[in-house]
Amino acid sequence: MPDQNAEEEKVPLVAYSDFYDEWHRFPPEIQEELAAFLERLTSNPYDPALQAKCEVDSGERFSYRLPGGCVVYWTVNTELVDITGSSLKGMTVSLLRIQPPR
């Protein structure tokens, strides 16, 4: 049985180099929407409900359009994941780009 007091395991997020500068240019409502999405993404990038709403290209790059109009692009890196368990250890999410709303 999982420890009820344990913090929920998150997948580390590796952001692109300009992410933090771009973040401060987004209005607060877009920041809130992005923060909620990134929280969901790092909780489980392979959540079936999330995956059903994503587009995936042949290079395993994912994209998702948020209701406010931003499009988030990322990849999931799984080279070090222990496939024998249900752990997310060894998995990372690489945030590639955030396209601002038009």
Task: Please characterize this protein's 3D structure.
With 102 residues, the protein is α+β, with helices and mostly antiparallel strands. The protein has one domain: 2-Layer Sandwich (YaeB-like fold), CATH 3.30.2310. 25% of the residues lie in helices and 25% in strands. The protein has 3 helices and 5 strands, in the order E-H-H-H-E-E-E-E. Strands 1-5-4-3-2 form a 5-stranded mixed beta sheet. It is globular and about 35 Å long. It starts with 12 loop residues before the first strand and ends with a strand. The N terminus is likely disordered.
Strand order in the sheet with the most strands: 1-5-4-3-2
Largest sheet: 5 strands, mixed
What is the rounded distance between the termini?
47 Å
Radius of gyration: 14 Å
Contiguous helical run count: 3
Structural class: alpha+beta
Helical residues, percent:
10-25%
Shape: globular
Question: Which residues sit in consecutive blocks of at least 5 with pLDDT less than 50?
Answer: 1-6
β-strand percent reads 15-25%
Average pLDDT confidence is: 86
Instruction: Give the tally of structural domains.
Output: 1
The level 1 CATH classification is: Alpha Beta
SSE string, helices as H and strands as E: EHHHEEEE
Task: Please summarize what this structure is.
With 102 residues, this protein is α+β, with helices and mostly antiparallel strands.
Please describe the topology of this protein.
Layout: E1 13-15, H1 19-23, H2 28-43, H3 48-51, E2 55-56, E3 61-65, E4 71-77, E5 92-99
Parallel strand pairs: 1-5
Antiparallel strand pairs: 2-3, 3-4, 4-5
